[in-house]
Structure formats: C-alpha cells, structure tokens
Fold Phosphoribosylamine--glycine ligase.
Amino acid sequence: MRILVIGRGGREHAIIWALKKSESVSRIYCAPGNAGIAKMAECVPIPESNFEELRQFAIDIGVDLVVVGPEDPLFEGIVDYFEEKRIPVFGPNKRAAIIEGSKVFTKELLAKYKIPTAEYRSFENYDEALDYLHKQKIPIVIKADGLAAGKGVTVAQSMEEAEQALKAMMVDKEFGEAGRKVVIEEFLSGQEMSILAFVDGNVVRPMVAAQDHKPVYDHDEGPNTGGMGTYSPVPHIPQSVYDQAVEQILKPAAEAMVQEDRPFRGVLYAGLMITEDGPKTIEFNCRFGDPETQVVLPRLKTDLADIFVATVNGRLQDMDIQWSDEAAVCVVLASGGYPGPYAKGIPIYGLDEVRESVVFHAGTEFKDGQVVTNGGRLLGVTGIGRTIAEARDKAYADAAKIRYEGRHYRTDIAQKALIAAAGRSDS
Ligand code: AMP
Ligand code: GLY
C-alpha cells in the first residue's frame, strides 16, 4: 500500500513512524515533511494548502490512502477534494471539521445534546458582549469563534484583562474574521486531559489518554503554545473518569454529528477539564493532537494502517484496537522566543547522540547537509518505558544532548503524574 501523509509537524512524524511498522505499507510519501520525516518517507515539497498539486501527485503515484495531519486543510475541505476523485482519504470532510473550526457551532451542539461543558454565551455585538461580561465572575474565559493559531483563547484573571481580550477580538479585529463572533465562557478548574478517538459516524474507538502542557514555561507559566510536552497514561485520573468522558462526551458528540447530518470520520480529539462535577468539554479538535500523538501512537499495538483503512472503508467497528501498558513522555524542544518571534536556520547538534528516546521532528529542515531550525516547536524527544518516571528520565537525558542556540524546553513535563504517584505511596 502507498500512503501520502500531509503535514510537516511532530504529529505527522509520529504517524509515519507508526505506519513504518505496518507490513502492508510499501511506500510512504509526505508533503511537505521535515528533516526527520525525510529519513523515513519520501518528502515532496508541496504545501498543505495546494490541494490541486497534492491531488495530482496522489493520482500520479497511484496512492492507496491519504492521511491529513493538520486542521487548516481539513477546514478548507481537502477531504472533499480528494473524495471527488474517489481517492481514499482519512480525515473529516469540511462539514464535520466545523467541530474544531467554529467554537460557536460546537458550544451550540454541546448544549443541544446536553453534553457536559462550561456555561457560555456567544456574541456578535461588542456592547452586548461587554454588558454580559460585566455581570460575570473572574476568572472568565474569552474565545474567538474561529481559528486563531492557538491564540484565540484568553483565560482572564481580571476584568481588565477580559475587557482587553474582548476589545482585541471584536473592535481591533486582531484575529480578523475568526473574532467576529466570540464565546464568553465559565472558567472551569481541575486537571486537563486529552482523549483522542478513531471515529466513523457512530463508531467511536477511544485511544489511551494523554496530558498536554500548553504554557511555555515550567509550572504552567507564560503564554500558551501549541503544546510543550505530553505524557500517557495519565495515572492520577481514574479509569472511571476516563470511561465517563468516553460515554458522556465522545460517544454522544459523535452521535450528535450524525444527527446533524455531519457524520465525522477521522480522529476526534476531546480536550477535557476534569472538574469536581466530572469531565467537561473544553474543546473538540478534528485531528490528531500535537504533541499528544507523539505519546499515544508509541503505545498502539494494532497496525495503524489497518485502522486507517478500516475507518475509510466503514469497518472501524470490526477493529480490535490494542494498547500497551508502557508509558511515554514527550519533551518538546522549542526555538528561543517561541511562541513569540524566533529566528530560523540555526544549526541543531547532538541528534546522533540520542540513545534511548525517539525524536520526532517538527520545525526542522536540512540545509547543506545540516539539520537547522525552521519553526517554533522543533523536536519532540519521546521516552518510552515501563513507568512514567522511566520514560521521563530517558526523554530528559536525551533532550539535554541536543544543542542549538536559544534552546528552550520545560523541565517539568509529567511532574503532575509523579507528584500524584508520590502522594499515593505516602498515604
Ligand atoms: P483551547 O484553545 O480551547 O484548547 O483553550 C486553550 C486553553 O485554555 C485550554 O487548554 C485550557 O487550559 C484553557 N481553557 C479553555 N477554556 C477554558 C475554561 N472554560 N476554563 C478553564 N480553562 C479553559
Ligand atoms: N496539543 C494541542 C493540540 O494539538 O491542539
């Protein structure tokens, strides 16, 4: 089987790393890929946004399956575009990708189908939004409706901060069309957890849980990023809570999409807050998480290509998907300055000294035979072990060997799990 993976991040590297293990996969292509992906797949320099060239390339090489990694092309209808020519493609179509593309759509869906989430109101009028805001308690959460490159959510700790966020979106139009509508949402407190699931219509096959670390600095300080590290399993969140999230959130959401005539096919990702009243939905994404994928797929025992093919062919319900009991911890190495402005083209040394971890590349490229920086998040150093502690030690030992100017990574990835484990053994 020939597979074309679309994307250039650590998520796509992890997908390709998992596909490499499949006996049914003969060739893997990636558009456009990165320096790490180039070692295990044939990279073609076609950007994710050039649907026409991507489709022509897929036809030319006689591809058997296309896998779409990032959200942007999904929102823009890349799946519909491939399906027009009957090319098998894994991912939601445009109508279904709206579950990530519009926060207002998703809040209305959750309310209509009584799926647990934060209380909210949505607004198109600034004065009405401001009036409502002034009647709310602090902290409060302000969200732009559309996609804003991960910057469209403000968890405001003061009324001034909330007012500023609202003004930036609705008056100054900092996010353009994405901020035309806003959601003002109740602040939820608790631990966050991500559950991704393979979904085909009503059929939901959840993956093992993961926990992301969004803020750029240790102890969850600083601005939010795409994710500075992840780990799986999340041992301090009980199985019963996981089961509750699957039964009360993921399955009803998939069913709701079918009811709305927007059946979802692909990976549905639930971002959850585990509150005192149980799990509540923070958001849905319409794709694999990044860097969640880097810790979830290493624990997958079933052939990933088989799962993709079964999903595309309407046979996901026949799949028995198995997961290992191992733990995985991914530490993201970022460019100095990220998530703000950062330099590119800086040489990265020490990759060949890595011994115990898998390094998934994100914003890297080859220049004159040297791996150089080419993005904000650069590498996801992933340790795999019998326990979180073992996986974490491996990841940090190897992360320290990788050197480049401005290197930044968090030193407390998975610490919450270790503290919770220590607390348990003390009691
Ligand atoms: P999102 O882009 O929707 O994932 O939001 C980014 C981050 O903002 C989440 O990972 C949470 O940490 C935080 N967040 C979003 N909504 C809420 C909420 N209602 N209560 C508390 N934190 C939230
Ligand atoms: N790690 C968060 C995301 O993939 O959206």
The CA atoms of residues 222 and 257 lie 35 Å apart.
